[in-house]
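Much of the work behind modern protein science is quiet bookkeeping, done one molecule at a time. The protein below has been through that process, and both of its lines are reproduced in full.
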Amino acid sequence: MKKLLIILLFIPYISFGQETEVINGNTEPTFKITTKNGEVIRTKSYRANEKKKVTDILTIEGKIIRIKSSKISSIIEIKEGWDYFKFSEDGFTDYVVVDVDSLSKEKLYIQVKNWVLETYNTPSEVIKSEIKNKKIRIEGSKSGGLSAKGMLGESYYYNIRYSIEISVRDGKYKFDPISLKYYIPYSKHVSARWVDLSIFNKESLSPYYYQKGKKKGRIQSIFSSFPSSIENHFDNLNISLFNYINKNKESSEEKSADDW
């Protein structure tokens, strides 16, 4: 249902030293690199070796590490002042508000609607409700959006469904995740079903965390990639929307697609 998102903040690989690219006027950007097993690495810069299929990373502590590029799930630039989603035992971030200077709620609504139309293959199915110049509610999906570890270290990937409500006011919009489900396929051990991951409900999240012993409060190892996967998923959608609005904010309602 969903197109592959082209996230503009997935910055091209950057070399160390003097070759570091200047981004948004900042010569020392910080990046969040998330691996497929859920590990998060904060970096000053990084460089991919396509021939050897590895990525060299310079951490914010000044340590240089090398990992296989295939183990990297995502790379996102950390924007100063940007509110990121956070998954924890107490629940998921309720919503974030993003400032968009000089845009009225009418123009913001148009940009949000256009983003949905251009991002999803079947927008008529994705859009579940809308109130003009106020808010749009969408439901999307992603293949392999969540992964878990088996007892022998094998990885399992689950498709997800999610819903988001995007509300607009003059000069800002609210990006509000509503629900998240993941699909467990049929096997000889379990029946196929959708599992509602009530990310805003502490009681619903407690089974994913250790409740006793020294590991109490830590996420169980088989679900170790859940937090970063969910955080990155909603962050990336929000960043995609923000980039789209910034890129097109000079467009007016009257501008035709035939204009050159």
Remarks:
- The longest strand covers residues 135-149.
- Residues 1-27 have pLDDT under 50 and may be disordered.
